Structure formats: C-alpha cells, structure tokens
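Tip: read the tokens left to right.
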C-alpha cells in the first residue's frame, strides 16, 4: 500500500477518515450506515484518483448505502439518482475501466479524451434528464426541489464522464459535492446528526479536486509514455 499510494494520498485519506469519524462521534453516534457509507465513499475516491477500478466497485456499494440514507430524510431525488443512475453507471464504469487498462496495468485505466461533439451531445442529454427528473421529483414532493434537481444534473454529468474515462469526471463530482453540502446543511438544521454527512461531502470535495489534478498528471504521463 505504501508503495502504491503517495504520502500525500495517504495523508489525504487519513485526514478525511479522521474528520468523518470525528464528526460521527460528535453529532451522530447512532446511524452506523452513514458512517460506513462515508468511509467506503472516501476510500473509493482515493482509488478513483489513481484510476483504479476498485474505486468504481466501492462506489457501487456507497451508492446503495447513500440511497438508503437519503430515503430516511425524504431526499427522494438523491435516492432515485444514486440507486437508479449512479449505481448502475458505476457498474458500467467498472466494466469500461477494466476493459481499458493502461498498458495492461489493471490498476490504472487508460485516460480518454471526450470530443467537443460528444460534449454537446452530453449537454443535450443532461438537459433532457434534468427536465424529466424535475417533474418526477416534484410529483414525489421532494424536499428542496431545485437543489435536488441540480444534484441530478451534476450526478449525470459525473457518471457519464466517469464511464468515458475523462479527467473532467472529478470536476463534475466536485460540483455535485457542493450541491450535496448545501442539501445536507439544510437537513442538519432540522437534525444535527446530518452534520456528519456534511463533513463527509466536504471530504469528498477535497478528494475529488485532488482526483482531477492526479488524472491530469496521468493523462500527461500516459501521453508521453
């Protein structure tokens, strides 16, 4: 492990875990599903930052647990998004990453570049998904409808770019993290236990930003290698 992860990555993961466990002990102490999901999620991100398919496998598990947590606070948008979109797409991304290793190295995926034309098609698809989910979430009287819809939008872009092996997936997830931080801050105003979920996504935000930086490094290294 020490030879695979850099000192910075070990430090980033350790500090993230420390803050997640600390916030759980301070604000929750009961919902171990939240703690488990947070720890699995932050671990998946450090593997994703390395382009390792293990990260996508862990994301499948995280999506299942997070969907359950979201249901508990009537964040039906989050539940539907993660169980109906993020989790299945993580499975497809896992298959894609396994099929596209860099120089037969199963621990590192080959970085891909998405063309401008494909980006336009993705934008059109995102607009359709956003509009469709807005009315679905409104029908179920979803809490904080606009933010929940924004979460669907950023999640769709993130999972699509992950499947396509683009470094931009990490930035899309970072945007999603910002939306989720806002959502769970609102939830924590009603139930202080959800402060631990806010801390979780703050940790995710830092890890996703690092993931983007590292994927850019991977892209240059693979290009020159």
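Filled-in amino acids:
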């Amino acid at each position: 492990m020490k030879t695979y992860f850099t000192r910075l990555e070990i430090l980033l993961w350790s500090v993230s875990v420390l803050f997640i466990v600390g916030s759980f002990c301070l604000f929750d102490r009961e919902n171990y599903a939240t703690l488990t999901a947070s720890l699995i999620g932050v671990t998946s991100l450090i593997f994703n930052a390395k382009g390792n398919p293990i990260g996508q496998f862990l994301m499948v598990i995280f999506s299942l647990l997070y969907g359950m947590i979201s249901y508990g606070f009537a964040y039906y948008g989050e539940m539907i998004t993660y169980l109906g979109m993020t989790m299945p797409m993580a499975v497809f991304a896992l298959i894609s990453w396994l099929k596209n290793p860099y120089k037969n190295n199963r621990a590192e995926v080959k970085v891909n570049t998405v063309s401008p034309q494909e980006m336009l098609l993705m934008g059109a698809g995102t607009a359709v998904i956003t509009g469709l989910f807005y009315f679905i979430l409104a029908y179920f009287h979803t809490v904080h409808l606009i933010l929940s819809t924004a979460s669907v939008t950023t999640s769709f872009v993130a999972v699509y770019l992950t499947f396509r092996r683009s470094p931009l997936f990490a930035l899309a997830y970072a945007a999603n993290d910002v939306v989720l931080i806002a959502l769970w801050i609102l939830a924590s105003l009603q139930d202080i236990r959800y402060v631990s979920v806010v801390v979780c996504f703050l940790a995710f935000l830092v890890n996703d930003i690092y993931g983007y930086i590292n994927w850019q490094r991977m892209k240059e290294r693979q290009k020159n290698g």
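The first helix runs from residue 7 to 27. DSSP finds eight helices and two strands in the chain.
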